[in-house]
């Protein structure tokens, strides 16, 4: 079951705390390249692959959660890559068949027959008789409820784990202070199959610094869902993939089944303390398969994704820290869409829109009669700190002290946007956030 619920060709195609990020220097992605998979890395097991010996010391048991829906061509690889992990502790594969109409159930049963349960490896098929698919979030919740291991690892049925993924991620969690570990999502690097699919997204996600994993949280999932590993206690604390944790008043029943990763992501970040961590290893630990037209993202509108991200932004930023006014950077399509989508209570706090385009600036205002909106537009230099008290006195609107949300896509202007943003001397994660 593929659950790609963002654009995944974009944001335009290592531990960090959610409460104390450092302000990093911005740089272009142009010179960075993603990890390169080794030949035959996808299928690294065979009939003679041995299971690891029982551990000398007690290791936490792991449940690998695999939702499965019409994935007959890929499910065996996903199961095998889990069964033959190098992790010497106990792994239970929890596969939930979500009303498949192909041979998915037969493939899983065949795997069960040829891969018997041992002291360190078990496979469980949850195959209920239900009238219709419940969706990926429902399937993951159902699979997780059937298990009891203290650590959960997420895997999509069309992806493949590299041999050391579980070992690496459990090591990260168990070496952290326990109170922090139990509030953490651990991710890892990945590569795409086919190799050149969604190249910009892959490069971006695999080269994020620990600071940017936190600071770009409103733009995108900075840790891809099929790479997630966390304590069961955190999953249950957030009520799993509950559609009600981040839902919109106008959503249909069908839409509530979409974007379950984005909803969980922001439920996690909305419940501090929360931490986002990636494994220190540079090599990819997951093969992330791209199947054209087969993912949920192909059925998830960009508008819905933006509304869900915006709801979290309103809850944690606009309702608490920016109530006295803020600025929207970008008077183009994305900036206007942001203004249109925002709750009226927060829209009235937009004091200014800024841009570099003289045509937009010369218009002086953004008008929207349907929303009864008239917002002034200026050059971004209006936000720059004044050099003297005399200059400051001339600026009757005092824009230089307002927080800013940037509604222009990052990494698309050869670094020019990031250079311009740096001139206004705001602190990311405090009085400046990138949203696109």
UniProtKB/TrEMBL annotation:
<feature type="region of interest" description="Disordered">
    <location>
        <begin position="112"/>
        <end position="136"/>
    </location>
</feature>
<feature type="region of interest" description="Disordered">
    <location>
        <begin position="1"/>
        <end position="51"/>
    </location>
</feature>
<dbReference type="InterPro" id="IPR029044">
    <property type="entry name" value="Nucleotide-diphossugar_trans"/>
</dbReference>
<feature type="domain" description="Glycosyltransferase 2-like">
    <location>
        <begin position="64"/>
        <end position="234"/>
    </location>
</feature>
<protein>
    <recommendedName>
        <fullName>Glycosyltransferase 2-like domain-containing protein</fullName>
    </recommendedName>
</protein>
<feature type="compositionally biased region" description="Basic and acidic residues">
    <location>
        <begin position="1"/>
        <end position="11"/>
    </location>
</feature>
<dbReference type="Pfam" id="PF00535">
    <property type="entry name" value="Glycos_transf_2"/>
</dbReference>
<dbReference type="InterPro" id="IPR001173">
    <property type="entry name" value="Glyco_trans_2-like"/>
</dbReference>
<dbReference type="GO" id="GO:0016758">
    <property type="term" value="F:hexosyltransferase activity"/>
</dbReference>
């Amino acid at each position: 079951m593929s659950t790609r619920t963002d654009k995944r060709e974009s944001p335009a195609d290592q531990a960090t705390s959610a409460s104390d990020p450092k302000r990093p220097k911005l740089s272009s992605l142009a010179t960075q390249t993603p990890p390169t998979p080794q030949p035959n890395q996808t299928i690294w097991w065979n009939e003679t692959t041995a299971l690891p010996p029982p551990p000398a010391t007690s290791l936490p048991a792991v449940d690998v959660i695999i939702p499965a829906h019409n994935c007959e061509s890929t499910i065996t690889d996903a199961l095998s890559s889990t069964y033959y992990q190098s992790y010497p502790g106990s792994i239970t594969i929890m596969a939930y068949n979500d009303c498949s109409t192909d041979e998915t159930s037969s493939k899983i049963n065949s795997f069960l027959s040829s891969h018997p349960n041992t002291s360190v490896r078990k496979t469980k098929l949850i195959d209920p008789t239900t009238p219709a698919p419940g969706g990926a979030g429902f399937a993951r919740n159902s699979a997780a409820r059937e298990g009891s291991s203290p650590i959960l690892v997420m895997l999509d049925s069309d992806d493949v784990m590299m041999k050391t993924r579980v070992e690496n991620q459990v090591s990260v969690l168990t070496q952290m202070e326990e109170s922090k570990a139990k509030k953490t999502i651990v991710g890892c690097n990945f590569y795409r199959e086919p190799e050149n699919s969604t190249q910009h997204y892959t490069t971006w996600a695999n080269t994020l610094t620990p600071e940017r994993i936190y600071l770009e949280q409103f733009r995108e999932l900075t840790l891809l869902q099929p790479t997630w590993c966390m304590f069961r206690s955190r999953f249950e604390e957030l009520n799993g993939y509950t559609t009600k944790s981040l839902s919109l008043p106008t959503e249909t029943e069908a839409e509530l089944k979409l974007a379950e990763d984005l909803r969980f992501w922001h439920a996690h970040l909305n419940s501090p303390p929360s931490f986002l961590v990636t494994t220190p290893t540079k090599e990819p630990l997951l093969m992330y398969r791209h199947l054209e037209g087969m993912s949920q993202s192909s059925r998830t509108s960009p508008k819905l994704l933006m509304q869900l991200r915006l709801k979290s932004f309103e809850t944690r930023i606009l309702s608490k820290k920016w109530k006295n006014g803020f600025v929207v950077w970008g008077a183009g399509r994305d900036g206007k869409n942001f203004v249109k989508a925002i709750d009226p209570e927060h829209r009235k706090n937009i004091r200014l829109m800024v841009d570099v385009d003289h045509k937009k600036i010369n218009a002086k205002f953004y008008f929207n009669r349907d929303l009864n909106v008239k917002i002034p537009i200026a050059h971004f230099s209006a936000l720059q700190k004044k050099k003297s008290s005399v200059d400051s006195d001339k600026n009757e609107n005092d824009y230089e002290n307002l927080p800013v949300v940037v509604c222009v896509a990052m990494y698309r202007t050869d670094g020019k946007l990031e250079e311009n943003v740096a001139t206004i001397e705001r602190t990311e994660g405090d009085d400046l956030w990138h949203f696109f």
